[in-house]
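Researcher: Next sequence.
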Amino acid sequence: MLSMRQKRGLLSTLVAKTTADQREKLHYYLELIGLGGKLKEKAGALSHGEKQWLEIGMLLIQEPELLLLDEPAAGMTDSETEKTGELLHRISDRQTVVVVEHDMEFVRRYAKQVTVMHEGTVLREGTMEEIQNDDKVAEVYLGRRVERHD
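Model: Next structure:
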């Protein structure tokens, strides 16, 4: 509720009452992030993955046009990582999601488009398959020229 768009003044915070629309919106986002059954839980009692999903939900409830996430699956179990990837896919159907991620398996499984950066500029952009087969990416990140014998 604290993350929801609302007036933030001292008086409005002290006398704020939750409307039916706000409660409906809260329940919608809790279901979306997979925490619908944890409404009464304290954030500190949630697992690492659940805390990450809560943070994502706190961003989503503000209805941003662009969601920027830095390594959202770091430290998660395999099942939490899978759930996070699926969640990001659902979110990306409605808004732009940019994820900075170094776990290439996560990128391979969930990225719709991959952008490879090098020294602050875009080196290549495309599908994961295109990126994996790109000679320039291999040269920069593997430190060697790739010789093709077609």
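Model: The longest helix spans residues 78-92. The beta strands are 66-70, 96-100, 114-118, 121-126.
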